[in-house]
């Protein structure tokens, strides 16, 4: 059976939606390990409560990146476990190019905007401040740049006049929890092909 590793830094609601989808049989794979760069992440407690093994790896001192030694340690962990797919779920650090090249298998990320709009931090606030009427979320393959790789699935969400940051975040999050498990299923079951940077979903 294929194995999934989920990387988290914080709350872990997307992680929970993936674990639940797996438990409900949306896709057939084992959630093998949850890895965090933050030992206090709420996600780690949630994963443990849901019976998933967790691992904390000290990422180094530089915000947003992973030190060479930590990157190698994480790589070693996922290779030894024969992980088929990594899902970044609120993981707040850039994955190194060398990691992606050596791992070779799919690494997915979820971002709370319709990329390429509003990459980076505070995507929902960026959308609200810009005044867009529609925003949403994106699941994409991870490449060496932030919030950049080929797009697998997106969902749109309306922005209302009376939205607060919190209400918009909640509306987007609800869609994140739908499309992330679905994108994982498509990738695990190989229901796509890549043409340049375009992911063509072939789910018959
Ligand atoms: C989500 O909004 C996700 O799109 C972004 O970080 C947030 C993580 O939330 N990458 P959670 O930890 O999954 O609850």
Please explain how this structure is put together.
This protein is of the alpha/beta class and about 200 residues long. It folds into two domains: about 1-105, 3-Layer(aba) Sandwich (Rossmann fold), CATH 3.40.50; about 110-204, Rossmann fold, CATH 3.40.50.170. The protein is built from six helices and nine strands. The protein has helices spanning about 15-25, 40-50, 70-80, 95-105, 125-130, 165-190; strands spanning about 5-10, 30-35, 55, 85-90, 105-110, 135-140, 150-160, 190-195, 200. A seven-stranded mixed beta sheet has the order 3-2-1-4-5-6-7. Helix 1 (about 15-25) packs across helix 6 (about 165-190). The radius of gyration is 16 Å and the shape is globular. About 35% of the residues are buried. The model has no long low-confidence stretch (mean pLDDT about 95).
